[in-house]
Amino acid sequence: MTLTRSPTWIPTAAVAALLAATALPMQAQQATASAASNALAVAQTTAPAAAQQQTIVRAGSQAPSQGPEQYFTGKVRVDPVFAASADVPYGTAFVTFEPGARSAWHAHPAGQRLVVTAGVGRTGVWGGPVVEIKVGDAVWCPPGVKHWHGAAPGSVMTHLALTGQKDGQSVVWMEKVTDAQYGQ
Question: In this structure, are 100 and 173 located in the same domain?
Fold first, then answer.
């Protein structure tokens, strides 16, 4: 599992970095990055009206649920944001763990990203150390990696989970994390 800070993604910067990696002269890099930025702006302003619609899911409009006892130790609240669909093959939820609460061991067929939004938590991968995670930390757990996550003993922790879906499946649940594995 790799812990990273969530970067700000800017299309023109990504184009410039890609061009730099291919060692094009600076003028060609600037011209190509500028053209890419202009093409993006034109596409955004000339798209048909039907393509410019959005769906807004209001905060609190979906019922929260308690994390099922068979998959979690301690009190856990799941606030769904949106479910996976054919257009967007990942679901999203805010998950809040009370102090000491944690998930069971599990893996995701298409991987999972977590962004800690409040408190202090812990996470671990099978055979690896327990790692502390804090507000702003982003966690990427690749497909098939056996892991767990939850709150630290003295802190509530909330994370935004973006969980991929593959062949209609988003998670494979396993055994519960023991107190020794949690690090108590």
Answer: yes
